[in-house]
Amino acid sequence: MEKETEYFAGIAKIPYLPDGGARDVMCFKHYNAEEVLMGRKMEDWLRFSVCYWHSFCGTGTDPFGFPTHHRPWNQGSPMEAAKKRLHAAFEFFSKLGVKYYTFHDRDMAPEGLTLEETNWNLDEMTDLALQLQNQTGVKVLWVTCNLFAHPRYMNGAATNPDCHVLAYAGAQVKKGLDIAKKLGAENFVFWGGREGFHSIHNTHVAAELRHMAVFFKMAVKYKEKIGLKCQFLIEPKPKEPCKHQYDYDAMSVIGFLKHYDLDSHFKLNIEPNHTTLAGHSYEHDVVMASAFGMLGSVDSNTGAPDLGWDTDQFPMDIRNTTLVMKTIIEQGGLQPGGLNFDAKVRRESPDLEDLFIAHIAAMDAFSRGLRNAVRIIEEGTMSSMVMERYSSFRHGIGQKVEDGSASLEEMEDFVKQHGEPKVTSGKQEKYEAIFNHYI
Ligand code: XUL
Ligand code: CO
User: Residue 404: how many CB atoms within 10 A of its CB?
Assistant: First the structure.
């Protein structure tokens, strides 16, 4: 057999060198995969995943400029390039030491002239993917269907006003679920980039939401039929490409799922850059989804607040990673989800080594976040302050409110007996000072 090209020649398996200096960027200084923290290996808390589309399909184009990333695997016919890309990706995963990857159906294999031809391309490419997965031990964190790039989807997929387009999306998802099963994907994501509207004048919002719910129900039914064991995830985003997207943020999606009785079949894949686009703080939707038992996975990236669009940058801020990891530990981990780097190296970072530097730095940022969160939780200073803050709910009238047995009449009796509540400081600055102690 012909020997496969080495795409990242000169780069060996990335080592853990905790004493590395400031200029040593091709090593982990904090991520030590096998090290056990709070009873679990770092790699199992973090479950890092590389996304296929940005790192292997991205070319550095932006709305104003041509490609700047000329990758050696983008050569030959579309299918030849797809195979080279897959080999390059698995070399990258192995050298980086990441156990998971994520992809859209259309990143993996080019679309043909008909649905049948497209599906043959997918069959051929996923045969190769399965072979490479078995050789390297790298697994699929999640698969998703690209229901937004092709012109047929310009008015939406599951919410398209034309049922013919909805049918196409359904056929595509059916195949997506088949390949999820074939490759042993642990999750399946729905991101509705064009499920929304640009003009309220031409949009029947109630009908579109109903159709989207029916679409999800068909997916649940087919998943059960083929015995696919994976977690379904919806990824909220408020806008871009639509002016308004139905899956606006965590709470909108949770409300939608509950309304249509779909909440037992889905969790959320939260992407912080989408959260900040919705006008929330970085950690907001991670915390909100977790509070409802709905946090399934995280597309670990960050935006640039001064730009205000989806810049998909690698997460580098230790405050943010600490808050996310604290939430993840508190809910007992993210499995079967993970931390997927839905992030792209900048257009101005075209070197192949930039792909490594970006992932290593982001993995270290999350490892520092994990280490900080472990200290915060193990030392318990903040949690005991929070416990104390809510202590009135542990006895008497508070306990009755807590267990749902209280009435308004009892509230009135209580106030008549005890008068005015005393003014209590929220101690925000004290919490912030303590949090900073761990960063
Ligand atoms: C788009 C986005 C997608 C989803 C998968 O903003 O985040 O890449 O993660 O379709
Ligand atoms: Co994403």
Answer: 6
